[in-house]
Amino acid sequence: MADDEDPGAEGEGSAGAGSISRRLLESLVCPATGSLLTYDDAAGELISKAASLAYPIRSGIPIMLIDEARKIEG
């Protein structure tokens, strides 16, 4: 493990995050708007409030395709 990695950042117990590092999650942006994303641990998704989209994480890999995102109501 590199010195700058946070050992607790891998989303232990999360179905979606798997081995995604906190550093990777913090560097991803919404492909539709370029805005920052938030991580929903319970759903295992990356949320773009600006675009009202939720991007899935499958097998530890964020799927950053607009066509694969779920539309968030409200």
> Distance between the terminal alpha carbons, to the nearest Å?
41 Å
Provide the residue-averaged pLDDT: 80
Give a quick account of the main beta sheet: strands, pairing sense, barrel closure.
5 strands, antiparallel
Q: Tell how many strands the DSSP assignment holds.
A: 5
Poorly predicted parts = 1-16
Number of H- or I-type helical stretches: 1
Order of helices and strands: HEEEEE
Q: In what range is the share of β-strand residues?
A: 15-25%
Structural class of the secondary structure composition?
Answer: mainly beta
CA-based shape:
globular
Instruction: Work out the radius of gyration.
Output: 12 Å
Helical proportion, percent range? under 10%
Structural account:
This protein is mainly β and 74 residues long. 8% of the residues lie in helices and 23% in strands. The protein has one helix and five strands. Strands 1, 2, 3, 4 and 5 form a five-stranded antiparallel sheet that branches.
SSE diagram, text form:
Layout: H1 22-27, E1 38-40, E2 45-48, E3 53-58, E4 61-62, E5 70-71
Antiparallel strand pairs: 1-2, 2-3, 3-4, 3-5
Brief write-up:
The chain is mainly β and 74 residues long. Helix content is 8%, strand content 23%.
Give descriptors for this structure.
74 residues; mainly beta; five-stranded antiparallel sheet; 23% strand; disordered N terminus
